[in-house]
Please model this.
Amino acid sequence: MKSYETKKYKKGLKAVDPILKKKFLNHEETLSMKGLTLNCMDRKAEAYELVRQGLKPTKNVRTDNTGFR
Model:
């Protein structure tokens, strides 16, 4: 997040990739952040796909938003 805010996009991608490859393959917030970073680097098609994946409704998101458990 800090790299995105300071417009150090390449550094941000280097920080995000290990998280997605080693620990959390489909972490929604990380996928969305990587998409936003790529969008700023004019890699719009790839960015759109990552943000779309990051915004996919999962069981946890649906239950938190609706208040049902």
Notes: Residues 65-69 have pLDDT under 50 and may be disordered.
